[in-house]
Amino acid sequence: MEIKNLRYFLAVAREENMSKAAELLHVSQPTLSKTLKALEEELGKKLFVRHSFSISLTDEGMLLRDRAQDLVAMSDKIEQEFNSLDDITGGNIYFGLAESYQIRYLAREIYRLKEKYPNFTYHITSGDTEQVTEKLDKGILDFAVLCETPDSNKYEYVKFPEADVWGAIISSSHLLAKKKFIRVSDLIGQPLFVSEQSWNNEIKTWAKDRFAELKLEGSFRLSYNGSVFARENLGILLTFKNLINTEGTDMVFRPLSPELKSELYLIWNKYQTFTPIAEKFLEQIQKAFK
């Protein structure tokens, strides 16, 4: 199975149209059709359902799309790494980041590295722990940032200088907006929004024996989306301070009491071999975060 053929497949899956995909790939439509047919024969599965004016993926096609995205990303990364082995002025670094206000510390170090090595390029993927560690384990990412203690059997890591402070994003018209702090008892019976990961970890630990009385209205991987629902009075968003800008809006942030904090960690695979630019970044950030 050739990477080029997987690129063709992904283009058609994305465009859902053979003509548009062929145009983007700068190949003829018969060539593209022949490639996809050969791919289906190689796998022994039908990958597409042809409609009058569009193409959709079968279940097998959706599975291949997910795998092909990782394979193509890995192929690109390997090529870039080898191209940058002799380039001490630049190169590529791939990051997978959790949502956190403390990402500002990472951004500052990237800026410092960029000043020294102008040809350095960075690539950012956002996601929760499961999403970013999966890509890190596959070698698609060089570094990941987590809001929970890393598995020291698998990863090396450094802790960020500051922790994130938990609180509630509430519509200013809500009765709880008048409070200075939000306690567990205030949230009983209230519809709550938070990531599923945080609900089963940080919030469960914070609420202790009253956790069962809390109601998860909906889970969001991105706090911004949860804040939109909170603004419409559909519930209360539990998230980190400063992730959602409430200044000049009809929402307020109220810290939790007792105080709840989450440490942030930059992690990488044990025994990982880095490109020259990734090594320089790691040296720099270990000194900065010491």
Based on the model shown, name its key terms.
D-Maltodextrin-Binding Protein, domain 2, 13 strands, alpha/beta, Arc Repressor Mutant, subunit A, 290 residues, globular, 5-stranded mixed beta sheet, 22% strand, 6-stranded mixed beta sheet, 10 helices
Would you mind describing this structure in some detail?
With about 290 residues, the protein is an alpha/beta fold. It has three domains: about 5-75, Winged helix-like DNA-binding domain superfamily/Winged helix DNA-binding domain (Arc Repressor Mutant, subunit A); about 90-160 and about 265-290, D-Maltodextrin-Binding Protein, domain 2 (3-Layer(aba) Sandwich); about 165-260, Periplasmic binding protein-like II (D-Maltodextrin-Binding Protein, domain 2, 3-Layer(aba) Sandwich), CATH 3.40.190.10. It has helices at about 5-15, 20-25, 30-45, 60-85, 105-115, 130-140, 185, 195-205, 225-230, 275-290; strands at about 50, 55, 90-95, 120-125, 145, 155-160, 165-170, 190-195, 215-220, 235-240, 250-255, 260, 265-270. Strands 7, 8, 9, 10, 11 and 12 form a six-stranded mixed sheet that branches. A five-stranded mixed sheet has the order 4-3-5-13-6, sandwiched between helices. Helix 1 packs across helix 2 (about 20-25) and helix 2 (about 20-25) packs across helix 3. The longest helix is centred in the first third of the chain and has 26 residues, at about 60-85. The mean pLDDT is about 90.
Output mean pLDDT: 91
Which term fits the overall shape? globular
> In total, how many domains does the architecture comprise?
3
Structural class: alpha/beta
| Helical percentage | 40-55%
CATH superfamily of the largest domain: Periplasmic binding protein-like II
Q: How would a crystallographer describe the biggest sheet? A: 6 strands, mixed
Q: Span between N and C termini? A: 46 Å
